[in-house]
Amino acid sequence: MALAVAWGASALWRAHATLADLRAQLAEEGTIRFTVRPLQAVLPTGLEYLGTPSIFTDAQVFEGRLFLSGPTGLFEYDTTYDTAGAPVARYRAGAELPPNPVTVMAIGLAGDSHAAELWIGTAGGGLVAYDSHSFRQILPKDARFRKITALLPLQTGRILLGTEKAGVLVWDGHDLKPFHNSLNDLPVTALAGDDTSLWVGTLDRGLVHWSAGAVTVLDSALPDRQILSLALAGETIYAGTGLGIAEVQNDKVTRLLADGYFAQSLFVPDSKAGEKKLWMGTLEEGAYEVPLEVRGARGAQLGRASVCPECSIRKLFSMEGATYALAENGLWRGTQQIVNRDAGLLKDRNIAALSLDGGGRLWVGYFDRGLQVLSAGAGGPRVEQDFEDDHLFCVNRIVNDAARGITAVATANGLVLFDATGSRHRLIGQADGLIANQVTDVALRPDGSIVAATPAGISFIDESGISSIYAFQGLVNNHVYALALDGARTLAGTLGGLSVLDGGLVKASYTISNSALKHNWITAITRVKGNEWFVGTYGAGVLKFDEFGHWETFEDLRGPLDINSNAMASTSSAVYAGTLDHGLAVYSLASGRWNFFETGLPSENVTAVEARGGMLYIGTDNGLVKIPETAVVK
Question: How far apart are CA 135 and CA 79, in angstroms?
Answer without folding.
Answer: 21
